[in-house]
Design a protein that fits this description.
Double Stranded RNA Binding Domain, 4-stranded mixed beta sheet, 2 helices, 28% strand, elongated
């Protein structure tokens, strides 16, 4: 994928950062592959919200800068960072699809009556 992906993590597990970063890049590549020519940059922020307390505490936030100047922002929170990344990547794919689909004219043609 040609789109630069910036990954910022704030987690306490140093050993999983490399595997997690590879997973983020792979998951986002799959999610926005169709729209890579319309996305200038993707920034991913992954944070451990509750710290060592446990619970639903991994938050993945993704911001995508589009070629038309717009910026899309999605996030997901899950118990595991990999699940949060998967959910946020899916939401980004849908948000990008909707944003570019909204600009297209309708495929249906209006019925025009002609007076006889």
């Amino acid at each position: 994928m040609d789109t630069p992906i910036e990954v910022l993590t704030r987690t306490g597990h140093g050993a999983t950062n490399d595997a997690l970063q590879e997973y983020i890049v792979r998951r986002l590549s799959f999610a926005v592959r169709r729209f890579h020519h319309r996305i200038l940059r993707v920034t991913v922020r992954l944070a451990d919200v509750n710290g060592p307390r446990g619970g639903v505490d991994s938050r993945c936030s993704i911001a995508a800068d589009l070629s038309d100047g717009r910026r899309l922002f999605v996030h997901a929170t899950a118990a595991w960072p990999f699940a949060a990344v998967t959910q946020a990547a899916g939401r980004l794919r849908e948000a990008v699809r909707r944003s570019f689909r909204a600009g297209r004219p309708s495929s249906r043609r209006a019925c025009v009556r002609r007076s006889a």
